[in-house]
Amino acid sequence: MSTSANGRPAVHLVDGSLYVFRAWHSMPDEFFDADGHPVNAVHGYTRFLCELLERAQPEHIAVAFDASLTSSFRNAIYPPYKANRELPPPDLERQFMQCRAITEALGVHLMIDHSFEADDLIGSTVWNLRAAGWRSVIVSADKDFGQLLGEHDEQWDYARGLRWGPAGVHEKLGVHPHQVADYLALCGDAVDNIPGVPGIGAKTAAALLSHFGSLDTLLDRIDEVAFLRLRGAATCAAKLREHAEQARLYRRLTRIALDAPGATTIDTLLRRQQGPDQLDNLCEHLRFGAFTRSRLRALLR
Prior knowledge:
Number of strands: 6
Oligomer: single chain
């Protein structure tokens, strides 16, 4: 069981979609399943998941996936949300399903929902289990997760071998975890097609939150902004006044939901005992080599 320095047990929560997309873009197009469909992303994701399970040896783990780029509650309140991203081609959609199958065949709990994104499922799980004394290790490079880190939690950028806790969020962004959603609402998030307030960049957003503490307080005290020792303070104040309601809307997008159907008990995340049949059938269909097959077999609980 993974524990922190103070002995708190850890649960690993993996941003699965991120690692499927990374594999899709990085693995060569030379892997095909028994039906002739490409499976390069499945091979890369499976390699990642094997390494993670071998290295961390987690007793409690879940992998969360996004069900769609267009079906979350955020699309309903802001249609341009993630509209800058191309929808996954059919070959990749198929591989997402195969990656989910591999995950379950290894006895790892799978989280997916059409109204909430992977971030929300992970966030709600972090929130639910913290009260029971569990700390969370969030396996992802996504800066959005910084808002979830409590005193004992950490984020793990697996590909770069980097880990950080709440203090690391401040080092990276200049704001504390509880300010991350406000920060992204102000300066925007191009990855998710959230524009932010025009003219307010990352440094200005961090400076404003350092002074006012939160977006709500900032917008309540806009009149003070023009008098701050801040480059372009008067222009900044005018932009905030003009775009105050948009900023509040953007925060509804950048804030990770804590009421999603994530895991509510730690037993849900205990790796399950699995027989070899499901995994063997997948290995056969995906045409995994002997090394990958033996590696997967060794991971069965």
